[in-house]
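User: Continuing from earlier, I have the next pair ready.

Assistant: Great, send them over.

User: Here they are, in order.

Assistant: Folding the first of the pair now:
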Amino acid sequence: MSDVPGAPADLLRSLTRAERLLSRRLGAVLADDALTIEAWRVLCLLADGQGHPMSEVSAEASLPPGTLTKLVDQLVDRNLVFRRIDPMDRRRIRAYLTARGRREHARLDERVRASLAELGISQTVALDAPQAAGLIGALDDLIDRLDPARRATPATRLADSTPAGITAGQR
């Protein structure tokens, strides 16, 4: 794309291509369960069990609030997610995984990991694939630099529960 190796255009092209190919691959894995990549992102974020305000879920899943509401409604209908009023701030709604949602997330996480293992991306990234762990760390750093609001918020990051299903504890 550029005559200069490592030019910004090359970075953008490579990141975009990798994201699209990974989304396509994981989308095929999730399609068997009628889940989208966006739904997977929401399930991964909620898998920490802490419950998250809808505004945070919207930001971390990169979905506009109206789209997120429709998606969460669908996940509620499937008994994967439930919503509760935040006990600390009654103006906010927090989303959580149901027991069934936790089981489904765990089951799908195994399938996603198996798909990634076929690519040579280890299930235990931190122990077996330091390059992959380094890449995830570098991407997290890039995201933090590009999104000052994220850097200022100590919220659990979606990157810590990436679409690849790799969690922070495994890095």
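And the other member of the pair:
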Amino acid sequence: MADDDLPDSLEPATDVPPRDEPPPPTTPKGDLRVASVIALISGIVVIAWYLFVVTASTISDLDNLAAIQIGMWVLAGVSLLFGILSLNARMARELAAAGFIAGVAAALLSISIGFFSGLELLN
């Protein structure tokens, strides 16, 4: 058998029909990137607010301080909830871990600093 009997590998296959395209892969289970990003962003906002509360000396001059404080408590709860939800992630685990850490940090800061600033608001 000679090499002349074999097909040329550089010659286009004109007699081969095209294959059907496979369906695109579905989003795998455990893709909780959105929950992780929500936990991360809301946690960063809460942490930045409490860093501002700790470092600012003119905090009593802000208007609607009670509404802002209540909003931060709600945002810390959202961050904690989505941070716990992101623990079930099977993909983007680093992002899920960052979201969980931000949620826990926001909740802890909200409890520690937010509790005492909330007591100050009531007086």
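Worth noting for the second one:
The chain is about 60% helix and 0% strand. The helical segments are 33-55, 65-85, 93-122.
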